[in-house]
Amino acid sequence: MAHDTLAPTPPRTRARGIGRVLIAVYAILALGATGRSVVEIIGKFDQAPFAYTLSAVAAVVYIIATAALIIPGRVWYRIAWVTITFELIGVLTVGTLSLFLPELFAKASVWSWYGAGYLFIPLVLPVLGMLWLRRTR
Amino acid sequence: MIEWFTIVQVAVAVLAGILCVVLGLAGRKPTDLTMGATALVEVLLIVQLVVAIAAPAFGNTPSGDPLEFWVYLVSAVLLPVAGGFWALVERSRWSTVILGAICLAVAVMVYRMNVIWFVQGS
Lengths: 137, 122
What we know:
Chain A is mainly alpha-helical. Helices cover 66% and strands 0% of the residues of chain A. In chain B, helix 2 packs parallel to helix 4 (93-119) and helix 3 (66-89) runs antiparallel to helix 4 (93-119). The mean pLDDT of chain B is 94.
């Protein structure tokens, strides 16, 4: 980047130090969201197609975000920003909708009630992810 | 599922998780103690796996969705193994914290499995 005054360094992975913990938690959440989504889509998709489609999208985004945090390089850095921003918008939007329009979410998704079913980790994690991305730029 | 065993399992996983997170943040690399605590969590999960396979034969069936239960159980069984391998490869304090995070995640998942087995659908 033009305003980058640092000497060019070989691409370094962002998976270092405490960032590894962040990535591990991301991976666990990705696993949880994927497992949940598979169960929902195989077993009961017709009960709440909207919420369950959202679960599937969330699961895919968590997987991409986990990968983007690990893989070095500018492109993946950008992908990490996009996916993590998407997650934050997702959890805020769906969290708010589930409070005011509960009929849309007859069955819960990962992001319902700001991720309360997942100990609010979906709400906290994107913020930590963004702080981490800023630090490792 | 056997309720008392599940309670013991959640308690062990929470204690192991707290132990690993605290020692990791204190700067300890993975040791026999933290690896052992994680291994204990894994052993209890294997026992839970055997119990879950055998229980329906004794009329102890899940009240909730069996598919959901099994996705949780299989995911939970895989987590400490993944974390353990990671701790062997990457000998840093953060690996200890990761072991702790995994044990805490297992605790939440076992609790959720308990809800599916006994509460959901009944």
